[in-house]
Specification:
The protein has one domain. The chain is 96% helix and 0% strand. The chain is built from 3 helices and no strands. Helix 1 runs antiparallel to helix 2. It is rod-shaped and about 105 Å long. It comes from Polaribacter sejongensis. This is Competence protein. Keywords: Membrane, Transmembrane, Transmembrane helix.
Length: 115
């Protein structure tokens, strides 16, 4: 009978260990999900605050640059045209190099998620 008792005890210990493993895995998954959610929300808020202030600064910078360039060229329309073309060229350069931005974003997110 002691062999059966030993087998039963071993099976009970294995069952308890697997239950503990499953509960710890679930707990870890919840904590990891919270970490990723908190970091993502933090990045979104920082991006919104810094981005909106930067956009506001760029608007004032573009308007003042267009006015100054217009006075220099003695034609306000040309000043606004050159500033608009400058932003258009920058947009094209960023569009053409978008793959490098995607790679950087994916590598940073993967470090956060799989860390």
């Amino acid at each position: 009978m002691s062999i059966f008792d030993n087998i039963k005890n071993s099976a009970d210990k294995g069952t308890e260990a697997s239950k503990e493993y499953v509960s710890k895995t679930i707990e870890y998954s919840k904590l990891k999900a919270f970490q990723v959610t908190a970091l993502t929300l933090s990045m979104i808020v920082k991006l919104f605050v810094i981005g909106s202030l930067s956009v506001l600064g760029f608007i004032f910078l573009a308007i003042s640059s267009a006015i100054a360039l217009g006075e220099l060229l003695e034609n306000a329309a040309l000043g606004y045209l050159f500033v608009g073309l400058f932003f258009f060229v920058i947009s094209i350069v960023i569009y053409l190099s978008r793959k490098s931005f995607e790679k950087k974003v994916i590598s940073k997110v993967s470090k956060i998620f799989y860390d």
